[in-house]
Structure formats: C-alpha cells, structure tokens
Amino acid sequence: QVQLQESGPGLVKPSQTLSLTCTVSGDSMTSNIYYWSWVRQPAGKGLEYLGRISNSGNTNYNPSLNSRVTISVDTSKKQFSLKLSSVTAADTAVYYCATLRLGQLSFGSWGQGTPVTVSS
Amino acid sequence: QSVLTQPPSVSGAPGQRVTISCTGSSSNIGAGYKIHWYQHLVGKAPKLIISGNNNRPSGVPDRFSGSQSGASASLAITGLQAEDEADYYCQSYDSSLSGVVFGGGTKLTVL
Questions:
Q1: B103–A46: do the CB atoms touch at under 8 Å?
Q2: CA distances, B29 to each of B8, B52, B96 (Å)
Q3: For a surface tag, which of A1, B36, B78, B100 has the fewest beta carbons within 10 Å of its beta carbon?
C-alpha cells in the first residue's frame, strides 16, 4: 500500500506562491500504475481536483485554476510537488496529495492532508 | 457549481437504507466514464469505498454498493450504523474539461 505525506508551510501571504511536497513510500514511483495528484478542500466546501503528473512528467491541471498551478515530480527522491502562484484567501484549504490510478482514474491512497492558510 | 450534482444532505436511522445520488451529463457519467465514491470523515483523509461503479476495495463492508444508469449514479448504504456518519463524494472524469471532477458532496446524518 502506498503511503503519502504532505509537507510545507502552513501560512502563505497573499500574492505569494504556495509550495507543498508529497513524499511517497511503498512504491517506486516508476511502475506506471499511478498518476501523482493534488486535491484540496476549502473550509466548509467540497473536494477540488487540482492536477496530476505522471512519472514521466506529463501533467493535467484543473482549468479553473487559470494556469496558477504547477506540479512537478522527482522520482529519485520519491517526491512530487505542488506550486500555486498568486494566492488569495480563497486558496485557504486543506491540501491532500493522492494516487490517481491510471485507466480507472480513482484516488486510492491519500496523505493525511495539510492545512494552508493564506493571510498577511 | 459542481459538474456532478449531489444532494447536500441525507439522513437515516440506524439499520435503515439510504441512497445518495450523483447526476452528471453526457461528457462524464453518460459517456461511460467510471464513477467512484469516497467517504470523508472529519479530520481524516477521504477513503475510496466504491471504485469503477460498483467495486468495493478490500476492507469496505458489503453494506456499501454502487450503481450507474445513464448519466446518473447512486451509492446505497444498508444497515446504517453511527460510524457511517460522514461526507460522501462521487468522482468521475469529464471529457469536456479533460480532467477529474468531484460532486459537491453529501452529508450523511445517522439519526
């Protein structure tokens, strides 16, 4: 079973870039079974898909984020990362990293989630 | 406004059966893309409970089942238990958006 752990600052100032990293254990990240993805949940709202990356670097992003999101992967470190630029208070949320199974496109394993607040 | 529409809340007494609907369109569920369901307890990570329309991952009780017809899907929970109280989300793929989409979520209250 894949285990995931998010890490990064819990507080980001408006207009700055939010940066989070997800560390993977229990999978080599090269097996072509999963996409590596990010999902968030603003307080009092539902789950929102942010994007995903394959182990070869192929990405797919939620178009509603207006090109503010970038996901990268470093399989040698067994990590993938999220960057969200020009943040506002609306980006305050719990951020989850998760595995997205190729083909079926279901999220099988999740990190515990990390809260990020955007505030000056 | 979510691409997949779920009722905001449902409720039921212990032992009862409840269903949660998920209505999509011809670019997602209606196009044949699989529907998946997640249980989200407060303070925890979401958990996949139904994948590929009606497959339960290991460890998920058979009280949970899924179905799909046309552009809609449903999650059924039988023998309702207090521990089932949670938020439930449907999820699929949308070809118009070229990406994964979630429903808005349904809060299940066990009376």
A1: yes
A2: 20, 11, 12
A3: A1
